[in-house]
């Protein structure tokens, strides 16, 4: 029987806005240039939130640069 258990691995987002005004735990977002590695590259599983705060005047969509979906 097939399962819909999928996890995301090595998620990288385009986040040019991240600055040092609001400290962000580097295990959640590790910035390199305009890219940020999410959750230290570890699996991101359904129904588990990864939460961080940022300082910006307007809201915007986060853009995915890279990542691997693993389903089994």
Number of helices: 0
**Widest sheet: strand order?**
2-3-1-4
User: On the 0-100 scale, what is the average pLDDT?
Assistant: 84
- 3D shape: elongated
Sheet of most strands: 4 strands, antiparallel
Structural class designation: mainly beta
Instruction: Indicate the proportion of strand residues.
Output: 35-45%
Query: Termini, distance in Å?
Result: 10 Å
What number of domains? 1
Work out the number of β strands. 4
Cα-based radius of gyration, to the nearest Å: 14 Å
- The low-confidence runs, each spanning 5 or more residues with pLDDT under 50, are none
Order of helices and strands: EEEE
Proportion in helices: under 10%
InterPro entries: TPD1
Keywords: Signal
Pfam family, one: TPD1_C
Organism: Arabidopsis thaliana
Structure description:
With 72 residues, the chain is mainly beta. It has one domain (6-71). It is built from no helices and four strands. It has a four-stranded antiparallel beta sheet, with no helix packed on it. The chain starts with 5 loop residues before the first strand and ends with a strand. Keywords: Signal. This is (thale cress) hypothetical protein. Residues 1-23 form the signal peptide.
Summary, kept brief:
This protein is 0% helix and 36% strand.
Key terms:
72 residues, 0% helix, 36% strand, 4-stranded antiparallel beta sheet, elongated, mainly beta
